[in-house]
User: Which sequence fits this backbone?
């Protein structure tokens, strides 16, 4: 499913939403399309809307400052680009480096994306005990990094010029 970036009225990135939600916000006149997918439009009897890639809210939404990106299974898979941390193949599950049964929690630094086979092979052990090596160490993304990863952008250079400028 395509993701659409939502900007506040001040052009501050807020989150990503589904394409369907973005179109609804535009149709309800709560947002305007800042950047559209080239050549793609949504058409109906009395509607002709460009397919939004970036939308901006018409009214400013006050958002509490977030120092940390919230942890989620989907976030771990996106952070690791759906690649297994043990073999590099496509990952569909999340593995706890320090198993939950041994005190490991659902944190950015304790979870990695893993394919089902490696997740089962490692089982309820640490990578060292299972004789497995991590290809990349887990890290905690900043809220801005998490937003870019959710959009599938690897670097700020992949953003439009007006959005890639540092604040």
Assistant:
């Amino acid at each position: 499913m395509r993701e659409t970036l939502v900007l506040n009225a001040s052009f501050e990135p807020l989150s990503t939403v589904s394409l369907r939600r973005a179109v609804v916000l535009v149709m309800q006149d709560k947002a305007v399309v800042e950047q559209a997918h080239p050549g793609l439009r949504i058409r109906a009897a009395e509607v002709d809307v460009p397919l939004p890639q970036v939308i901006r809210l018409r009214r400013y939404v006050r958002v509490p400052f977030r120092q940390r990106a919230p942890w989620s299974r989907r976030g771990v898979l996106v952070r690791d680009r759906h690649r297994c941390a043990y073999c590099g193949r496509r990952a569909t599950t999340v593995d706890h480096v320090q198993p939950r049964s041994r005190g490991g929690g659902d944190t950015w630094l304790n979870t990695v994306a893993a394919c089902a086979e490696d997740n089962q092979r490692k089982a309820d052990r640490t990578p060292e005990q299972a004789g497995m090596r991590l290809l990349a160490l887990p890290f905690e993304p900043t809220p801005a990094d998490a937003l870019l990863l959710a959009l599938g952008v690897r670097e700020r250079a992949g953003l439009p010029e007006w959005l890639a400028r540092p604040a």
User: Anything to note?
Assistant: Strands lie at 3-7, 13-18, 31-43, 48-57, 93-96, 111-114. Residues 40 and 51 are 6 Å apart (CA to CA). The mean pLDDT is 86.
